[in-house]
Amino acid sequence: MFRILFMGTSPFAVPSLKILLAKGENIVGVFTQPDKPQGRGLKIKVSPIKGVALENHLPLFQPVKINRDESVDIIKSLSPDIIVVAAFGQIISQRILDIPRFGAINVHASLLPKYRGAAPINWVIIQGEKETGVTVMLMDKGLDTGNILLQRKLEIFPEENAGELHDRLAFLGATLLKETVERLKQGGLTSSGQEESEASYAPPLKKEDGVIDWKKPAEKIYNQIRGMNPWPGAFTYLEGKILKVLQAKHIIQGSSHESGKVVKTSDEGVLVATGEGHILITEIQLENHKRMSSALFLRGHPLPLDAHFG
Description:
- With 310 residues, this protein is α/β, with parallel strands linked by helices.
- The chain has helices at 14-22, 48-55, 69-78, 94-97, 120-126, 162-186, 218-227, 294-300, and strands spanning 3-8, 26-31, 36-38, 43-45, 60-61, 82-86, 104-108, 131-138, 148-155, 234-238, 241-251, 262-266, 269-273, 278-286, 292-293.
């Protein structure tokens, strides 16, 4: 029976592992990131993949560094026919990739070679793309540079944020992985190389990537707000405090107001001038406060029309 070793950590990987289990595939082991303390209370948080592995009584491994000799020895002892990787979070060395007879495959949330790297779902929205997709590729020593096995496109909805797109891509990735494994077992799948001239990158997001530059056009700010939701969150400053902008709409018509100036407040939201057009902020979170609609926020924090963000 086909022996599959699964490596994954984040929620994106969960549908892929679950679909293999639902198909009755032989999962000989699961590798995921070590448990980590998070939040103010430093409570230990386990990865979503660990939860699925424990529920299904799968052999579980959480090495600090996957490429150390002890991890390599474990992988060899499991004798996988294939390694499946989905949002694992560690670079995998060539000596591990060489262990399974069918190699290692990665479920990546972009249309490679575009948006290689750690945060493709965020960056496709930030860059204003209209479509994205999932690629299942053969892994090599490069960063998402391996030959493509299968690829599927997906439309990005105009008001969709990164969290919503993530969930749709995760399920598309699982469906594509299922087809990939079936066709690999049947020997009816060939790969094709990536076109390097079309390559682009999606580096990890940093908190400071969320800072809103109100001098930019409204459409670019709108895409930033969507692409940064739910993490790290787009934000600005109001009277020295961080103000997260969680939901917004972009208004095309021009403005003679200074960028970042509050132009109008109403039950619809807070209208802010940008370098080109306006942003209507509809959901907001002030530092040390709960998230709320802009209308509710304004009841407790009325903004004068000379108020400025940034």
